[in-house]
Amino acid sequence: MAIPPYKAPSRTSYDIVIVGGAAVGSSTAYWLSQAVGTSASILVVERDSSYEFSSTALSTSAIRQQYSNPINVKISQFGIRIIQSFQERMAPFYKDELAPDLGFREHGYLYCCSVDGVEAARARVDLQRSLGAHTVFLEPGPLKDRFPWLNVEDLGGGAWGAREEGWFDSMGLLNGFRRGARASGVEYIDNAVTGLELSGGRVISAKLSTGQSVSCGTLVNAAGPRAQQVAAMAGLSIPVEPRKRHSFVFSSANPIPGRMPNVIDLSGTFVRPEGELFLTGNTPLNDGPADYDDFETDYLEFDDRIWPALWHRIPCFDALKVQQSWTGHYEYNTLDHNGIVGFHPEVTNFMFANGFSGHGLQQSPAVGRAVSELIVHGAFQTLDLSPFCYERIPRNEPFLEEAVI
């Protein structure tokens, strides 16, 4: 795993040090820079500024409102507003260049529902619609009418988000946030945090791979799958570990007519169109913690599990050929698959922004804003993300979300 040459910071002390500069870290840096301007010094330490192995770059870059918990729905609704207005929002930071258009493909999500799961699926749809989402529940007949290529024989129906769900350019989002933060005075360096020094219940400095130490007023852990590594440097522990997720792009001898959504099968396999090709993935059968540097793809996962699931749900997928594949890491929260956001109660200037379990990219706009509000105001000002607090971890009180992919 190649790492770009590390660079030293420009100063020895910062008001805020953010560990990790991908989507969550750069969103946090952007919102902080807009809130405080140059009145506070902010450093983002990113171990791989190429982002080649970041969860952001290797994600499937999708966003949905189909969650079972109201706060997750609201987080996505804010994210969608940011995605839709991103080019206009970022225009001041690009001057003579064109700000990134995130190419939002508003194809929606289709959650297949088992016969036994109809009642719970309808309840989720009702909740989502009460919050302003456009989800509808389709029984097997109307579902087959809408999507004639779908096998509905073993389904109780499907939840379809016809609007404000889809997929977008993940690196465009990251680069825009990063550009806005840097233009507003945030410093980014290619480096890695190797240790933290604590005193009086606070982080007082971070040691870097290049040997320097930088003192800080607040430290933000936005290290993605490496979140537990950073927490351990402060003597803390969170149930976050890297989990491998394999993505496969394939061609089909039989095209899918019409506007195909992102289909979530009962098996957990998903599939969506990518131009004339298709993107698919699943939760691997052996879904244990991965080595931080292990990005090897398990091709048998496609042959043995994904393809059979695809062929069952979409029978015209009987002749497929993989054209491309890659493997990324989820920063997987083993307690409840939801994010951890907020200060530690004892190491009082250590901020968590971790454990989003595959939702980090889509939740990064709202999470970055929320972290900024906690640092600047001491409390949430817009969305109340207090259910994501660290305190639920030692209490072993999961904040459950039913709609996990």
From TrEMBL:
One of its GO terms (biological process) is mitochondrial respiratory chain complex I assembly. GO terms for cellular component: cytoplasm. Residues 15-374 form the FAD dependent oxidoreductase domain. InterPro entries: FAD-dep_OxRdtase (IPR006076), FAD/NAD-bd_sf (IPR036188). Keywords: Oxidoreductase. Pfam families: DAO (PF01266). GO terms for molecular function: oxidoreductase activity. SUPFAM superfamilies: FAD/NAD(P)-binding domain (SSF51905). PANTHER family: FAD-DEPENDENT OXIDOREDUCTASE DOMAIN-CONTAINING PROTEIN 1, SARCOSINE DEHYDROGENASE-RELATED. This is FAD-dependent oxidoreductase. It comes from Aliidongia dinghuensis.
